[in-house]
Amino acid sequence: MATLLLPSHAASHHRRAVFSGGAHHHPLLQPDLLADALHAAASRRRRPIAVACRAASAAARAKAPPSAGAGPPPQALAKEAHKYFDHAVVSVRAGDGGHGAVLNMPPGPSADSAPAKTRGGGRAADKGKAKKGSGKKVSFKRNYDGSVSLPVGGHGGDVVLYADEAEESLLGFHAKARHCAKRGGNVGATGTLSSRMHNGFAGETLRIPVPVGTVVRRKKGSVLADLAHPGDEVLVARGGQGGISLIDAPDYKRGKAMALSPNVMRDVTDKILTHGQPGEEISLELILRVVADVGLVGLPNAGKSTLLSAITLARPDIADYPFTTLMPNLGRLGGDPTLGAMQFSSGATLADLPGLIEGAHLGKGLGRNFLRHLRRTRVIVHVVDAAADDPVNDYKIVRDELRMYNPKYLERPYVVVLNKIDLPKAQDMLSSLALEISSVGCEECHDSNTSKEKLNENFNRHHMSEDDDKELGDYPRPQAVIGASVLRHIGIDEMLKEIRTALGKCSDHMLPGP
Ligand SMILES: Nc1nc2c(ncn2[C@@H]2O[C@H](COP(=O)(O)OP(=O)(O)OP(=O)(O)O)[C@@H](O)[C@H]2O)c(=O)[nH]1
Hints:
The protein has 514 residues and is α/β, with parallel strands linked by helices. It has helices at residues 31-44, 47-63, 74-79, 81-84, 122-125, 172-175, 251-260, 304-311, 391-405, 424-438, 452-464, 492-505; strands at residues 87-93, 102-104, 130-131, 137-138, 159-164, 178-180, 206-211, 214-218, 223-227, 233-237, 246-248, 281-288, 294-297, 329-332, 349-352, 379-385, 414-419, 480-483.
C-alpha cells in the first residue's frame, strides 16, 4: 500500500439565495390614491379594452397546454429515468385575487347618519351607527379615518418551492409540469352593505417540495434560488391582490355616500376595480445538483458502488456489468469525534456517480452531464480498478473527462483508491501503480505551506486563464493513493482517514456558486 500525502486547497460550502417574485400590489388599495384613481378610471372609460384583455387572456389560458413543455412519455420516464431525474421545466401560476363587489347602501337613513370625517376621530365620532326608518340601528366596520370599511377580495395563493429531504429527484415534475395555486375568495356579497360582510378568503399558498440541492432559475434566465439546505424556500409567483368593493348610490344620494366612503362608484367602468388581479405566472427550470461533500468517480465497474456500501449505510445496486449506476447514489459517513466540532465530525455525504468512459464529453456511455453533481463536492475520490489492463490510463481518462467538463474539479483535493487489491494481478502491480499515479500532477500546487493568499491567487489565475491549455500534469497531485479492496474490507480505515483529512483541509474560499 503506498500513500502519498500532499496538501489540499479546495473548499466550498453552499450559498443561499432567496428570490421573491415581483409584487402585484393593487395600487388602488392605498387610501390616498383611491379617490384619484376612481376619478381617473371614470374619465378614461376603458372598459371595453380591459374586458377584451381579460377575455383574451382567459381564452389564451384555456388554450394553453396542461404542461409547460412537451415532456417525455411515461414509458421513457420509467426506462430512462437517469436522463430526466435532475432537470425539469415547470410552469407555475399563482392564484388570482378574489373579486370585490358593488354594494348598495342599506335603505333608510343610514347614509344620512354618515359621520362627518374628523381628523383621526371617525371611530370616536361614531361607531357607524345609523338609524333606519324603522329606528333599528345599522353599524358598519370603519377604517382609521372614519370611512366605512368595504370588504376586499381574497389574495390569490402564492407559489413557493422548498427543499425537502424526502424528495429524491425531479422526475415528478415531468409527469406534472404545471402547478397552479388557488384563487382568492370573492367577497360574499348580498348586494347590500352590512357590518357582517367579510373579506374574501385568501387562497392557500401552494408549497411545492423539491429535492435538496435544486437550483431554481427562470426558464432561459437568471438563477432565482439555490435550495441547497433542507427547508430553504423561494417564493416564485405571488398571488394576485383581491379586488376592492364599491358603493353604488343614485345621483341624489352620492354626496352623502361619498361622505361615508371614498369608494363610491361613479361610472360603470369603475367595476373593473372590483376584479381581482391575476396571479403571477412563470416558467422555471429546475436543476438538481446533489449536495455531497465527497464525489466518487471512476470508470464503470471500478467498484464505486461497492465502496459506498462498504463505508455508509447506502445500498446501491452492485453488479458485474458496466453502468449499474445510472443516477447518483448518496451515503453518509459516520462522524469522526477526533475532528471536533465544525470539522465534519458529524459525518460527510458521499455521492457515487455513474461510471465515466473515454469520450463521455462527446456523449459516449451515459455522457457526462451527471458530472454536474460533482459541483458541490469538496473532495473527489477516484476509484480505479487496480486489476484492470491499464489502471494508470484508466485514471488519466477519468481525470481528463473531469478536466474537459470543468477544470475547477481538478483543483479540488482528491484521493485515489486503487481497488480490488485482493486480486493477485492487482497485488503485483500495486506499488508501481501507486508510484506512477502519485507522480501525475504538479507538486508545488500542493505544498502544505502554501498560504491562503497564494491559494486564492492560484485559484484566480487558474480560472481566469487558459484552463484548456493545461495538461493533467499542471494540476495538483493526489493527496493520497491508497490500495484497497472495498469488497474484502481491506484498506478501508486508511481510506476513510485520508478522506476525512482532505475534508478537514477544505476552506471556504473555493465556494462553488449555484
Ligand atoms: N474482487 C473484487 N471485486 C470488487 C471489489 N469491489 C467491487 N468489486 C466488484 O466489481 C463489480 C463492479 O462493482 P460496482 O461497485 O458495481 O462498480 P461501479 O464502479 O459502481 O460500476 P458502475 O455502476 O458501472 O459505475 C462488482 O461485481 C463488484 O462485486 C473488490 O474490492 N474486489
